[in-house]
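> tool_call: predict_assembly(chains=two)
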Amino acid sequence: LQELSIGAAAASAALVAGCVPGADAAASGELRLKWQEFFKKNYQLMTEEEKAQTVARLEKLAALQDGLQLQIGTEPPLPKVLYGYAFNITRCEGFMECVTACIKENNLDRRTNTQYIRIFEMEPGQLDPSTGDGRYFHEVPVDNKFYMGTQCFHCENAPCTKACPVQATWKEPDGIVVVDYDWCIGCRYCQAACPYDGRRFNWASRSYPKTRSTPNSTTSAIACARWACREVHLLHPALEQGAAAGLRRGLPHRARVFGNLLDPDSEIRYVLKHKKVFSLKEELGTEPKFWYFID
Amino acid sequence: MSAQHNRNLRTFVIDVFRWNLKGGPGFQLFRLLLLGCMGLGVYAYSHQARFGLSVTGMNDIVSWGFYISNFTFLVGVAAAAVMLILPAYVFHDPNFHRVVIIGEGVAVGALVMCLTFILVDLGGPLQAWHLIPGIGIFNFPSSILAWDVLVLNGYLLLNGLVPAYILYSHYMGRTANEKLYRPFVFLSIFWAFSIHMVTAFLYQGLPARPFWNNPLLGPRFLASAFAAGPALIALILAVIHSFTSYKIDRSVFNKLRLIIVISAIINLIMLFSEIFKEFYFPTHHSSSAIYLFFGMDGHNSLVPWIWTSVSVNLAATLVLAFNPGKNNPKVLLPACGFLFVAIWMEKGIGLIVPGLIPSPLGEVVDYLPTWVELSVTLGILALGITVVTWLIRAALIIEERYAGHN
C-alpha cells in the first residue's frame, strides 16, 4: 500500500487530553497499540515486516475504536507503470458524480464538506478554472457553459514534496504523489506550495457515516490522523480491477481517462497523441500528469 | 562582594530566580498579569488540542493565519538585535556595548515566541519530533522550512549562550574572555541576516503564490525588521531608563533613531515599488494585492487594516525623520510605538493572509481569527515578555552589582 492510509485519530486525542478510558484489558491493549503507532517510522523507511506490523495494529485499532473490519493493503507500485490522467472538457456536464464517489470512497469529512475533486462551471472563452464558478448549485448542464474538474495533478516536479520539512509526502516510482498521514506534522507548508489547490487538511476528526464507509478500500484513510495533510488521490493499481472500474462505470459521461503512460496501447496514450491536450499553469514547470482535452 | 568565593553556577541560577521573584507590588502585579495571560493561552490551546485546528479561523484556503503572521513578524524582531550588536562590536561604540545585552534578551524572547507560534500552528504537535535529525527525517536542503528550523534554533543558541557566558563571567567577578566569544558574536551577526532571509524564502520560494513569489520579499523583510525591531528596543530602553537605576546614554537613542528612519524609508520605498508593480499594469498575479488594498468579490475585511497600517507607517516614519520635537522623547517614543504596530499589521496579517487569497483556483474568502487564536497569541506574547523581562532583569543586576569595575 503506497497510499499510506492509516493512522490513529484518537491517539493524539488520548495523549493530549489524557482521557484514556477504563482499566479493562481492551483499553490497555488499545493504549499499547497507540503507543507503538506513535513511535513508528516514516513509511518509506519501513521494512516489509514493519509494514505488516503497522497494518495489523491499525486494523486492530479500527476494530477496537469504531468496530470496523478493515483490510489494509501494502502492495508496492507496479513495475513499468507510470500513471497519467486526462479530463475531457467536452464531455463533462457537471453532474458531480465523480465528486460524490470520491467523498464516499475516501471517507472525506462530511461536516466541512471536504472535496478532493472540485468541478468549476466555466464561461466560454475561458480555460482557467480561477475564472469559473466552483460553488454552482443548480440544474446542469447549463447551455453555453462547460465544466472543468480539478484535483491533485500528481506533478512530476511536485512543489509539495519539495516543501515538506519531514518527507511525509513523496512521489512513488509509478508517478503517484502520496502522503504518510502518520508522519505528517500538520505544518501545511505543502498546502501553501500547491499551485492547484490539490491539498486538503483534516481540520478536525473526520465525520463520515461509519456504516457506509468503504472498509476494503486500499486507497482511503479509514482512520487517518486528525491533523494530517491529505493529497487528492489518483487512482490506484488495485483500483484498476476493483473500485475504479465501478467508479468509472458509475460516471455518466466517461469524461475521465486514466492509464499507464509507458504502455503505447493505453487509452491515455491515445488521448495524448490524437486529441487537443493542455495542462494548467504550464509556466510553473510543475509538469502535471493530468491533462485536459477537447473532443 | 564578600560572597565572591561562594559563587558558582548553582548560585548563579538561584540568584537569577531570586532577583526575578523579588520586587515591589507594581512589579508583582505585572508578573501576575503576565501569568494570567499565559493561563488564558494554555486554556485556549487545550481547546485547540482537543477539537483540532477547526476551532481556529483557518480553512483549506486560508491555511495559515494569525499564528504564522505573528511568527513572521517576530523573526524580524529577533533579527533586529543585530542592529545593536553591529555598532557595539564592529564599530566599538561604548554606549552600545552597554545596551547590547538588552538587545540579545529581546532576541531570545522573540525567538521563544517564534518557536512557540510554530508549535501551536502544527496540527500534530506531538509529531514534532519527526523534525529532529537522527530520530526523525529532516528534509534538508530541499525544504526551506527545514532550513528555518535550523537557523532559528541556531540563532537562539547563539543569542542565549554568548550573553550567558559574559554574564556568568561578570557574576563570578571575572572579565569575559573576548577572544573566546568574539567569533560567536560575528557568527551571530551573519546569522541574524540569515534567519530573516530564510524566513522570507519560506514564502518567496512558492511559485504557487505570486504575492509572495517576489525577489523583493527578503530585502523588504530585513528593512522592515530593522525599523520595527530597533523601535521596540528603543521603547524597552526608555522603560529601563525611567524605571531602573540602569541609565542609558541619550546618544544611543539618537543613533537608534537614525537606524529606524533609514530602515523605515527603505522599507517604504520597496513597498511603493511593490505597489507600483501590482497596480500599474494589473495581471492575474496582482489579485492578492487587489484583494488586500481594495477588496474583491464583496470580500474586503483587510482593506481598512492595510490602509491604517500604511498611513500610520508613513506618519510615524515622517515624524521620526523630521524630528519635530527636537529629540523630545514624548514625540519620538510614541512614533516608535506606532511604527512598530504599523509594521506588525502589514508584515503579519497583511502579508500572510492575502498571499493565500484568492486561492490558486480563484476563490475569495475572508479570514478572521477566532477567540482561540487571539487568546493563544496573547498567551505567547505574555510568555515572550516574561522571558525578556527575566533575562534583562538578571542581566542588569549582574552588570550593575558585579561588573561595575569593568
